[in-house]
Amino acid sequence: MLLEGVLADLTSQLDAQAALGVQITALNEVPEEGPVNKGLWYQIPNVTAVFVDLKRSTELSADSTPKTSAFAYTYFIRAMVLIFERFGSDYIDIHGDGVFALFSGPQSEFCAVASAVTARTQVERDIAVRFEKDTTTEWKLTAGVGIDRGTLLVRRLGLRGAKQNEVWAGKPVNMAAKLSSVACSNQMVVTDRVFSRYEQASYIRRRALLWTCGCSDGVQGDGLDIPIGETECLWNEESAPTEMGLDFDHLYRLKSKWCCVHGVEFCETIVTGCRPEE
Length: 278
Ligand SMILES: [Zn+2]
Known about the structure:
Layout: H1 2-20, E1 23-26, E2 40-54, H2 57-63, H3 66-86, E3 91-95, E4 98-103, H4 108-132, E5 143-158, E6 164-169, H5 171-182, E7 187-191, H6 192-199, H7 203-210, E8 235-239, E9 250-254, H8 263-272
Parallel strand pairs: 1-2, 5-7
Antiparallel strand pairs: 2-4, 2-5, 3-4, 5-6, 7-9, 8-9
Helix pairs in contact: 3-4, 4-8, 7-8
Bound molecules: zinc ion.
């Protein structure tokens, strides 16, 4: 009988796991090989998790032809994976119609935010434009991005062989996914613990991360040359929604994308902490 077999296997697997116990090893960065098997978990501090997902994807599935939906997912997922990979993400995975990327190491929050602004910019500037050529749907391709930071536990679980998957347990992945749903179209939302890292960064990073370049309505600003505080702040603070099981008090929204004139310089400054040489 099917059920008897399932239950017998379940009991024997859980007994075997109980005999093995669990071990937790602390690491500083996400290991290249992924977590090992047996009872070993890795505990990794200071991991920044970025989650990006398609907005209104339920409407996409309901209102569009299968070919349209397939194009949207293909453009979106391929582009997001490429961007996170190029920004040095240690681990990228696809969850439903979203992509999550982990960045580890003491500076992880800077590569994470630069990759996220790039993702959000390219969704609007390149991916959505290609998708608009499809006249069979009124659905607009936009994305929401969430970012959190903290300690993660990881191990490989599942069936032996090809069906094994890594399990990433810890608040940052959950919180980043929840924040991506709080984000409006083509918006990025970060937790207060991520934002406070940006406020404590070096002068040139704070300049690039927190303040605009001064460009507006066809008038070119002076970019990083404008002193801190003399242009508009890029972020809006608000109280975290209470009904979503969030474990932080405030969130910060970033609506802007990379400026066509200053984006390259701002991105480089955020990632490296140095202003690129002219
Ligand atoms: Zn600009």
